[in-house]
Amino acid sequence: MPAFGEIRGKAKFVKKAQYEIFPLSFDLFYCKFIAEKLNFLGRGMRKLSKLKRSLSYIFILLMPISISTPSVDSAQTTVQIYGDIGQYALIARDCSDQVLHKKTVPFNEAGAGISHRFNKNFAVAAQGQVLNDMEEHCDLSGAQNRYSYSHVTYFIFTPSFYFDFKYLGFGVAYSYFSRNIGDNKHWLPGGFVRLGPSWLNFRTQLFYDQPMYLNGLVSAGLSSIIFKHTEIFVGLNFTPYDKKGALIKMTYQYKSGTGISAILRMGRSCGIREYAFGLGLRWKLH
């Protein structure tokens, strides 16, 4: 599985690089919550054409001139740690899409992982994460709906594997998911697909990337190497946020193999800012 913020491989002109993030996925126990959060996707698709053009203009300006990254022809093991904070809008709507109630929900995530690359095309990994969130309770017994909120902690363990080729990459993750200590555990699969060479490619994921809330349960965008040892991703992400928002990731890798990543998510819904910011650090064991 790709490490958080790992640049690797050979590039088209000098050396190739590939941005990697450990996978993370959600659980079947919360599919109802996920389905409710994804109900805006159909409306959002009609607006994607303008966003696609804007992203294309950005990446034309960011096309790389030269790239220099470490080779990964031989086996190597990397570890990574990360953390983030943010907030999203929890909106209750009626059948006509009118807002009945809204709430700002803060969250934070922290985790670590390890990955082992057997060669330049195949790797396996495992990661663990703790996610602190809030859940909504609605009392329908009175004349008016009454809302209350409680803290909830998710514990997630995710083994995965991925394949990486020159113009195609894809991975599969299967998350072991628990809500609070002592609750029943469940499993849910996730995955990602990369199309194009490492110097400019399209990447999309579903219940795969971590940190989970920071990256969004669903995201898609373009990635390019813009400076020496530096890669940037610009795209959109969705759930758990009420509205889609901009997702920007930047990764810098030192010659020693140590890498640092920064991720920023920005958006707004019903006057509530939906944002998140996270940092990750990774290093090679050998």
Derived structural class: mainly beta
* Beta-strand segment tally: 14
Which CATH architecture is right? Beta Barrel
Helix content: 10-25%
Number of domains: 1
Total number of helices: 4
Rg over CA atoms: 19 Å
- What overall geometry do the principal axes of the alpha carbons give? globular
What is the string of SSEs from the N terminus onward?
A: HHHEEEEEEEHEEEEEEE
CATH class: Mainly Beta
Strand order of the largest sheet: 1-2-3-4-5-6-7-8-9-10-11-14
Average pLDDT value? 77
Portion in beta strands: over 45%
Cα distance, first to last residue?
Answer: 16 Å
Write down the CATH topology.
Answer: Lipocalin
- Largest β-sheet summary: 12 strands, antiparallel, barrel
Low-confidence stretches: 8-49, 55-71
Structure keywords:
286 residues; mainly beta; Lipocalin; 12-stranded antiparallel barrel; 4 helices; 14 strands; globular
Could you characterize what this model shows?
- The protein is mainly beta and 286 residues long.
- The chain has one domain (28-284): Lipocalin.
- The protein has four helices and 14 strands.
- The strands form two sheets. It has a twelve-stranded antiparallel β-barrel.
- A hairpin with a 5-residue loop joins strand 10 and strand 11 (259-266).
- The longest helix is centred in the first third of the chain and has 14 residues, at 48-61.
- The chain is globular, with a radius of gyration of 19 Å.
- It starts with 30 loop residues before the first helix and ends with a strand.
- The relative contact order is 0.23.
- Mean pLDDT is 77; it is low at 8-49 and 55-71.
